[in-house]
Specification:
Length: 407
């Protein structure tokens, strides 16, 4: 169940069985993101920022639809009895109307609407902010799956969707997702939606019980107060860092002042969300450095100053640790491949950033399909390594690709 502060850890417990043959990955999820075994319901929460990071990490590790899979494992008794309350409505249409009434209590940070057009009724979900962040899209993919499962529970049988639209990118495991949801979804859409035949709205529910519905309603409203749709401290801090004109201003004192709190309070809030000020500063620096080197024309010395480094050498040392490239080396190879900055923009903006770092063939295919083609003699593994670096892949993956090109 979503709460104002995160997701009940109990809902993540199926991951232990799913990843039992990947103990190293489970260890990473526990050490870096706070996943831990719990007994019962609601005994612990994973902060929203940690959940988004978990979904993104598992996507990169070959589990692109883990959010939808978790939704299908959910115990519907969790959530203050919502499932049983809805099942006691007279018809599916009445249950849908109640879901709309409760949307501010069961949806974390988005909008839900129902659109009826001729023979189809369409449930539409739309995240309210950071609508292109992969982790948020994966979470909403799971929420849509949960809503579909909730409706099937209401009718006590399968509900066959006519169509499903997802904002998430196409994956190589689309068939598995189709098997879970009942129809092949359409990816890269502008909203999340599932369509059913309008005739289903009049379907009577087998658990219909007006007296039970009336008795449960006040207690459910009491147990499920409206969720305060607040942005996490982590997300707010990322936005604050991104808006700074000079990265040298990125210190905890300035940040705490901007958030109207003390530095120790800011540290505690970030720690509760599974991160720290220094980690977020490093992420912001890494993203800015890459952006300015790949897509900008400022000198490396100017970039170092802009990012708050003491000198060019400090930036070079950090950049080498992040990407296994020297800044000048990356820029010279990119300039040789695409002398015109506009061509470089066009080529690199088209790269699929959801490709896994441990999938060389996917990156080689991406390199083969790149347009416009590089003007220099850059192809195969070397071009794939260049693309990986320009999209922020881990240094080990980039180095592996470059090494393959030398053999």
């Amino acid at each position: 169940m979503q709460t104002p502060n995160g997701l009940e850890m109990a809902l993540l417990q199926p991951l232990y069985a799913r990843l039992s043959d990947r103990p190293a990955l489970l260890t990473t999820l526990q050490a870096q993101l706070g996943l831990r075994p719990v007994n019962g319901q609601g005994q612990a929460l994973m902060a929203t920022s940690g959940l988004l990071n978990l979904l993104e990490l598992l996507h990169a590790e070959g589990e692109p639809h883990i959010g939808a899979w978790l939704a299908m494992q959910t115990d519907l008794s969790i959530g203050g009895g919502v499932a049983y309350y809805l099942r006691s409505c007279a018809t599916l249409e009445a249950a849908l109307n109640e879901i709309l009434r409760l949307r501010s209590r069961i949806l974390p940070d988005g909008e839900l609407s129902v659109q009826t057009t001729g023979p189809q009724v369409r449930l539409v979900l739309q995240p309210s902010y950071q609508t292109r962040r992969l982790g948020r899209l994966l979470r909403y993919e799971g929420i849509l799956g949960w809503l579909m499962r909730l409706l099937a529970h209401c009718v006590a049988g399968p509900l066959h969707p006519l169509a499903i639209d997802l904002m998430t990118p196409q994956s190589d495991q689309a068939e598995q997702l189709a098997a879970m949801l009942g129809v092949m979804p359409r990816f890269d859409r502008s909203e999340f939606a599932v369509s059913y035949p309008t005739a289903l709205l009049a379907q009577p529910l087998p658990g219909s019980n007006p007296a039970l519905l009336a008795a449960l309603r006040p207690s459910l409203d009491y147990m499920l107060p409206p969720i305060q749709h607040t942005v996490s401290t982590t997300e707010q801090l990322r936005e604050w860092l991104a808006a700074l004109p000079l990265h040298g201003l990125a210190n905890q004192t300035n940040a705490a002042r901007a958030f109207n709190c003390g530095t120790s309070s800011l540290r505690r809030r970030l720690a509760s969300e599974g991160t720290s000020f220094s980690a977020l500063v490093q992420m912001d620096r890494r993203a800015r450095a890459l952006q300015e080197l790949v897509f900008g024309e400022s000198s490396i010395e100017a970039i170092a100053t802009h990012l708050g480094y003491a000198d060019r050498t400090s930036l070079e040392r950090a950049f080498g640790g992040w990407f296994g490239y020297r800044p000048a080396q990356l820029r010279s190879e990119l300039a040789a491949a695409w002398p015109a900055l506009k061509d470089r923009h066009a080529a690199l903006r088209a790269v699929d950033t959801t490709l896994r770092g441990d999938d060389p063939q996917a990156w080689l295919s991406a390199a083969a399909a790149i347009h416009p083609r590089p003007q220099a003699e850059v192809h195969g593994h070397r071009l794939a390594a260049l693309l990986m670096c320009a999209t922020g892949m881990p240094p080990a993956a980039i180095q592996h690709m470059r090494d393959q090109g030398r053999h």
